[in-house]
Amino acid sequence: MADVNVTDTLKRPLRGLRISVTDRCNFRCTYCMPFDEYQWVERAEALSFAEIERLARLFVALGVGQIRLTGGEPLVRRSLPTLVAQLHAIEGLRNLSLTTNGALLAEQAGPLKAAGLDRINVSLDTLQPERFRKITQRGELQPVLEGLAAANAVGMGPIKVNAVIIRGFNDDELLDLVEFGRTHGFEMRLIEYMDVGNASGWTPDKTFSKREMLEIIHARYPVREVGRAAGSAPAVDYEFLDGKGQLGIIGSVTEPFCSSCTRARLTADGKLITCLFAETGVDLKSKMRKGASDEELQEIIRTVWIERGDRYSDLRWERLKSAAGYEPRAHKKIEMITLGG
Ligand SMILES: C[S@@+](CC[C@H](N)C(=O)[O-])C[C@H]1O[C@@H](n2cnc3c(N)ncnc32)[C@H](O)[C@@H]1O
Ligand code: SF4
Fold first, then answer.
1. How far apart are CA 226 and CA 234, in angstroms?
2. Does residue 27's CB lie within 6 angstroms of at least one atom of ligand 2?
C-alpha cells in the first residue's frame, strides 16, 4: 500500500512484519535457544490463525507490504499452510515468506507452495553432520538437505540459505557454504553472530565480521556489491563476477542497519515489538480479546510506530568501539525464539 506512510521518530516507514507463529522449536541451537526448558507461551495464549490474519490485515493497511513467518520453528505449528493461504489472500500484501530450520520442510514444501508462499529462507550453518548435531543439539543434517531439495522441486526458488558464522566454530566452512550455494543455485545469507536475547553464549570475539567474510569470499570467488534489496533489507547483496548467482551478508553487529529498519515484529502471543533487541512489547492480543475494534487496534499500532526510536545495533556498535566496551547482559533482551528472528 504505497500511499500509506506511517513513519517513526527517525523517519523510517512501517513496511515489514515478522510474525512468530510459535515460540516452540524442535532444535536447540546453541546461539539461539540452548536450554531444554523455557517459559513457553501457553497454547491458549498463542494467537489463533484468525487473530493473526486480522492483525496482519491491519498492518497491511498501515503500509506493510512484506510479511515473513518465523518463530521458534514455524513448521512445528500445526496446519501452517492454512494460515499461509489466509495471509496470501490479504489484498495489498506483496510478499509472503518464511524462515525455517528445514527439518520438516520435505513434507511441507508442496502444501506451503500451493497455499501461496512466495519465498523461503532455510537456516543451515554447517555441512558437516557431526557439527550440525552439535550446534542444533537435536537436529540432523540430512532431513534439512532433503527439505531444501523438496522446496527446490516445488519451484520455491530463489531459495535463501541462512548461515550464522561463529568464530572458532564454523568460520572454516565459509567457502564450503558459499560453494554449496553456487552448486545448488541457493542464495547464501551469511549472518554475523549477534547477541540476541541473553541465552546464547555470545561474546564480541565470536562475531566473525562481514568484512572478514567478504575478504575470504572475494579472494576465491570475486564478487561485486549490488546493495540492499529495496534499500532496507538486512543483507547487503553481492553477485559473483563469473555469473554464478549471488549471496548476501548481514553485518548486524559491525555494520548496523538501524537507520533503514522498517520492520515490526509480532510474537506468538500477540505482542508488538519494534526492535530485535527490545525488552518489552505492546500486548495487542489482550486488547483484541477484550473487544477492541479494528480502528482501535490500528490506532495502537500506528501510535507505537510513530513513537518508535529504536537503534539498538547502532548503539551497541558505538559501545563496542568505545573504551567502556559493551556488556551484553546489562540489558534484559527478549529471546530470539520468542520475538521471532
Ligand atoms: C530465530 S530463527 C527462527 C526461524 C527458524 N527456526 C530458523 O532457524 O530458521 C531465525 C534466524 O535467526 C538466526 N539466528 C538465531 N540466533 C542468532 C544469533 N544469535 N545471531 C544471528 N542470527 C541468529 C537463525 O540462524 C535463523 O536463520
Ligand atoms: S528458532 Fe531457529 S535458530 Fe532458534 S533454536 Fe530453533 S532452529 Fe535454532
1. 13
2. yes
- At 147-199, the pLDDT tens digits run 999 999 999 989 999 999 999 999 999 999 999 999 999 999 999 999 887 78
Q: Is the CB of 334 under 6 A from ligand 1?
A: no
pLDDT digits (tens, 9 = 90+) for 3-38: 689 999 999 999 999 999 999 999 999 999 888 888
CA of 28 relative to ligand 2 center, distance in Å = 6
Q: Could you report the per-residue pLDDT of 256-309, keeping only the tens digit for each?
A: 889 899 999 999 999 999 998 888 899 999 999 999 999 999 999 999 999 998
Question: Locate cell 553485518: which residue?
Answer: 251
| Distance from residue 20's CA to the centre of ligand 1 (Å) | 12
C-alpha distances out from residue 309 to 7, 215, 261, Å: 10, 34, 11
Q: Cell for 290?
A: 477484550
Assess whether the C-beta atom of 100 lies below 6 angstroms from ligand 2.
no
